[in-house]
Amino acid sequence: MTKAVVVGSGPNGLAAALTLAAEGVEVEVLEAAPTIGGGTRTSELTLPGLLHDECSGFHPLAVDTPFARRFDLSRHGLRWRWPEVQYSHPLDGGGGAAAWRSPDATAAALGADGRAWRQVFGWLTSRFDDIAEDFLRPMLHLPAHPVKLARFGALAALPATALASRWSTPQGRALFAGVAAHALRPFASPMSSAIGVALGTAAHRYGWPVAEGGSAAIARALAGLLAEHGGKVRTGITVTSLDELGSADVVMLDVAPSAAARIAGERLPPRVRRALTRYRHGPGVFKVEFAVREGVPWQHEESRHAGTVHVGGSLAEIAAAEREVHRGRMPTRPFVLVGQQYLADPSRAAGDVVPVYAYAHVPQGWAADATVAIERQIERFAPGFRDRVLARHVRSARQLQEYNPNYVGGDVVTGANDALQLVFRPRVALDPYRLGVPGVYLCSAATPPGAGAHGMCGYNAARSALRELRGKGAGCS
Q1: In this structure, are residues 185 and 419 in contact, taking their beta carbons and an 8 Å threshold?
Q2: What InterPro entries does the entry give (predicted)?
């Protein structure tokens, strides 16, 4: 029987394991941490009864993918829940902007910028299923929908400042700036619009849902379905070399590229080793979990109903903060993402005390405490916030790497989203999952389509392995 070992139990490692096991491969998953899940862990980090997502909190690209359609995770308890407002952006003075599931409702609330918002996101939303079919795969392929992908690509290729110029009001520009900041790239750089266009469109097509009971529900569902197919998971096992994995026919590495290079060692072809060791990581994040009585008192009304709140002020302020971070300097007013998952999933709260998730963009490997900077930014748009905070849990960029070694220097998206790596990650190759060692594949978020709890990196890598097995005439069961 064909045997596979998967190193790492994040959503991509588990997705790869499940995809292989469903085809009759005998699969074992090895996880270094005491618990599975990677970026999809949920814990009581502040006060008893409050469920905090330790990293990945919102899942706009996980709802409708080839992997999600192939495997019914709802049978193992995965339930998606949506907030009323998908994301919002407060501004000084109590104003701001918000994105609803409907692009028309969002456009109507933007007033003078509504027509421009509809022109960008309305067209994309109605065609996003086809567009996503192409961008959830490696870029070097024959597109199934070339015209639609080309229009999406024309917008994605723009610097965020250039695309933001389509909107004339502070509200419209800020609303796009907040979602574009998810790329952790300077706004003047090429393709810095790509993540914002994808996530902004996904908010209208799929929403920004949360997993009921916390993101750990994703890992539990994956592990449950894997067990149905005979797969096994072992925790507390650190893999440092391929030699430790015995005679496995397939090895899937859900690790950062540098870790893959260390594990594969001298077996790697020199060109692949160079690519993996030169792989670039982006800025880090500094994360704070808050226990807050009665929630965050946002002045901007829609922000009180938003699952995600982008905190950073105007487009110009966010652009300046992101530029400073990339220069290795901590901005006085960093961009802060605030998660209010409990609005969609009240089971995470305990009475009137709710869990609030927040992180700031910081320079790579930043070790200093950014808690005060984060609280000042929230307090700026929600006066009285500090008075409601009952407890905190803090992780610096360096501590995030200790929590999950894939987050090198606190880089939670597992790789810089510069133009080259956004298109060709982790290296330029027709099959970016193969490492040039027979049967060994990289399946982490450093591979296409990148970060998120969608599992598509693992699914794509596993399908690559299955093609190779079949090409060799190897039976899977």
Answers
A1: no
A2: FAD/NAD-bd_sf (IPR036188)
Per-residue model confidence as pLDDT tens for the chain (477 residues): 899 999 999 999 999 999 999 999 999 999 999 999 999 999 999 999 999 999 999 999 999 999 999 999 999 999 999 999 999 999 999 999 999 999 999 999 999 999 999 999 999 999 999 999 888 888 776 777 889 999 999 999 999 999 999 999 999 999 999 999 999 999 999 999 999 999 999 999 999 999 999 999 999 999 999 999 999 999 999 999 999 998 899 999 999 999 999 999 999 999 999 999 999 999 999 999 999 999 999 999 999 999 999 999 999 999 999 999 999 999 999 999 999 999 999 999 999 999 999 999 999 999 999 999 999 999 999 999 999 999 999 999 999 999 999 999 999 999 999 988 988 899 999 999 999 999 999 999 999 999 999 999 999 999 999 999 998 776 565
Please answer whether residues 132 and 197 qualify as being in contact, where contact means their C-beta atoms are separated by less than 8 angstroms: no
Rounded distance, CA 215 to CA 204, Å? 21
**Would you identify the CATH topology of the domain 3-41+61-77+211-279+414-471?**
FAD/NAD(P)-binding domain (3.50.50)
Is residue 359 within 8 A of residue 288, CB to CB? The reply is yes
Name beta bridge partners: 52.
43
Q: Counting Cβ atoms within 10 Å, is residue 475 exposed (0-12), middle (13-18) or buried (19+)?
A: exposed
What are the sequence ranges of the domains in the chain? 3-41+61-77+211-279+414-471
Q: Whole-angstrom Cα distance, residue 241 to residue 261? A: 10
Angle at 244 (CA atoms; ends 256, 449), nearest 5 degrees: 25
Assess whether the previous peptide bond of 426 is cis (omega < 30° from 0): yes
